[in-house]
Specification:
The chain is about 35% helix and about 30% strand. It is an alpha+beta fold.
């Protein structure tokens, strides 16, 4: 699967348009791929988001999630933090700071 970085369209294969260039006494054929929707040459391999299945460009596929699912994960965590008291937040801050300090020492 491929995705166009210009229009966001997904497709199985890009359109291929040959171009011919002079070379010696003849011509050399060079094939270029283009988005079948908008004609852009700015397309790349795409992979499915592991949560919802939406296509994600290879260059954006750091955590195997699409932008919407990344945003939902951050919002879900923020919503949870908003339910905690100051004391609970202080405890978690202390607990995880000490976990990170221990892992740095190991």
């Amino acid at each position: 699967m491929y995705i166009c970085k210009e229009c966001g369209g997904t497709f199985d294969e890009p359109n291929v348009i040959p171009e011919f260039h002079p070379a010696g006494d003849g011509f050399v054929r060079e094939d270029f791929g283009y988005c079948p929707y908008c004609g852009s040459s700015a397309w790349e391999q795409a992979y499915p988001c592991l949560k919802c299945g939406e296509a994600v460009a290879d260059s954006d596929y750091f955590f195997h999630l699409c932008r919407r699912c990344e945003t939902e994960a951050k919002q879900g965590l923020q919503d949870y933090f908003d339910t905690l008291t100051k004391e609970e937040l202080d405890f978690l801050s202390w607990e995880y700071d000490s976990v990170f300090e221990r892992s740095k020492a190991e």
